[in-house]
Amino acid sequence: MPAAWMSVIGAALPYIESVAKIALPVFKQRKSDKEAAESLQKQIEELQTAVTHNAEHVRALAQQLQTTLAALEQAGVQLASAQQRQQRWALAALGCGLVALVLAVVALLR
Q1: Spatial distance between the Cα atoms of 45 and 54, rounded to a whole number of angstroms
Q2: pLDDT digits (tens, 9 = 90+) for 74-101
């Protein structure tokens, strides 16, 4: 009986080799596809983590920007108020100067 199996294996060996040459790359490709899928899944998870961190940083920056804009708006209001005060003082000084000029001209003419 063992001799019968040996002759069958001997006859089938060339065919097994050709089938193996065709089939092995397919099995390797499936493993490679599996590894590629795992790698792709890992990349997706890393990208999702990066997007989450970026969103948190953008939210923090938006809050800082909002605070900065509020401070700038307040500073603008204070600056406008100070400018109006300076304009009033300048007009008052101009008025005093004109009064002094008129008094000086009147004093010269007497």
Answers
A1: 14
A2: 999 999 999 999 999 999 999 999 999 9
